[in-house]
From TrEMBL:
<comment type="function">
    <text>Part of the phosphoribosylformylglycinamidine synthase complex involved in the purines biosynthetic pathway. Catalyzes the ATP-dependent conversion of formylglycinamide ribonucleotide (FGAR) and glutamine to yield formylglycinamidine ribonucleotide (FGAM) and glutamate. The FGAM synthase complex is composed of three subunits. PurQ produces an ammonia molecule by converting glutamine to glutamate. PurL transfers the ammonia molecule to FGAR to form FGAM in an ATP-dependent manner.</text>
</comment>
<keyword id="KW-0547">Nucleotide-binding</keyword>
<feature type="active site">
    <location>
        <position position="198"/>
    </location>
</feature>
<feature type="active site">
    <location>
        <position position="196"/>
    </location>
</feature>
<comment type="pathway">
    <text>Purine metabolism; IMP biosynthesis via de novo pathway; 5-amino-1-(5-phospho-D-ribosyl)imidazole from N(2)-formyl-N(1)-(5-phospho-D-ribosyl)glycinamide: step 1/2.</text>
</comment>
<keyword id="KW-0378">Hydrolase</keyword>
<dbReference type="InterPro" id="IPR029062">
    <property type="entry name" value="Class_I_gatase-like"/>
</dbReference>
<keyword id="KW-0315">Glutamine amidotransferase</keyword>
<keyword id="KW-0436">Ligase</keyword>
<keyword id="KW-0963">Cytoplasm</keyword>
<keyword id="KW-0067">ATP-binding</keyword>
<dbReference type="InterPro" id="IPR010075">
    <property type="entry name" value="PRibForGlyAmidine_synth_PurQ"/>
</dbReference>
<feature type="active site" description="Nucleophile">
    <location>
        <position position="87"/>
    </location>
</feature>
<keyword id="KW-0658">Purine biosynthesis</keyword>
<protein>
    <recommendedName>
        <fullName>Phosphoribosylformylglycinamidine synthase subunit PurQ</fullName>
        <ecNumber>6.3.5.3</ecNumber>
        <ecNumber>3.5.1.2</ecNumber>
    </recommendedName>
</protein>
<dbReference type="Pfam" id="PF13507">
    <property type="entry name" value="GATase_5"/>
</dbReference>
<comment type="subunit">
    <text>Part of the FGAM synthase complex composed of 1 PurL, 1 PurQ and 2 PurS subunits.</text>
</comment>
Length: 226
């Protein structure tokens, strides 16, 4: 019996089907979760996918954070449930205070869509075990509100504790402080990033590479070996 990984759909979510496919390609079972349903259907991990939930009104992720499903996700994440937030999902995680900091509009005030070079900074989270620290990868990026910000104390703490998981290389696409592309919580079970690994799991799509697949194989191995 394989691991079951839930994928939440909010109004305005775009990439839930892509995330489900990536999970399936990795060898796990994707489970669709609806934003109004508090029941996580006994999944072993959760993905909050990309999109424009609730039209990004107020702030990106600000309304989704109060969806019924998030009440359970927050409770279980604090108890150790692995959670991955991709793009809009990362925004939801910051709004839910499962990850520190906030996401603001890109510094150039434009939507950006490109293949983005990243460096793996932390290969010890639940979602990055199949990478190695220092590895350089290419993952598709598409966002309007992708600028990660936090106060200096929080940034220094993230750096000191090794909680910066990914960093932009060659080009900072949105003005994120310290080139931060993704972070993790203290326990390493919650990870958020702006690039879209689910779009880089098969050679025929996305970047033409499979650099995003280790996100999903990492969590599968973590769950199977638990």
């Amino acid at each position: 019996m394989t691991a079951r990984i839930g994928v939440v759909t909010f109004p305005g979510t775009l990439d839930d089907r892509d995330a489900q496919r990536a999970i399936r390609v990795a060898g796990a079972e994707p489970v669709a979760l609806w934003h109004k349903d508090k029941d996580l259907k006994q999944v072993d991990a959760v993905v909050l996918p990309g999109g424009f939930s609730y039209g990004d009104y107020l702030r990106a992720g600000a309304i989704s954070r109060f969806s019924p499903v998030m009440e359970t996700v927050i409770e279980q994440a604090k108890a150790g449930l692995p959670v991955l937030g991709i793009c809009n999902g990362f925004q939801v995680l910051t709004e839910a205070h499962l990850l520190p900091g906030a996401m603001l509009g890109n510094d150039h005030l434009h939507f950006i869509c490109r293949d983005q070079k990243l460096r793996v900074e932390n290969a010890e989270t639940a979602w990055t075990g199949d990478y190695r620290a220092g590895q350089e990868i290419h993952i598709p990026l598409k966002n309007m509100d992708g600028r990660y910000v936090a106060d200096e104390y929080t940034l220094d703490k993230l750096e000191a504790e090794g909680r910066v998981v990914f960093r932009y290389l060659d080009f900072n696409p949105n003005g994120s402080l310290r080139d931060i592309a993704g972070i993790t919580n203290e326990a390493g079970n919650v990870v958020g990033l702006m690039p879209h690994p689910e779009h880089a799991v098969e050679p025929l799509i996305g970047t033409g590479r499979t650099d995003g697949l280790p996100f999903f194989t990492s969590i599968l191995k973590k769950l199977v070996n638990a």
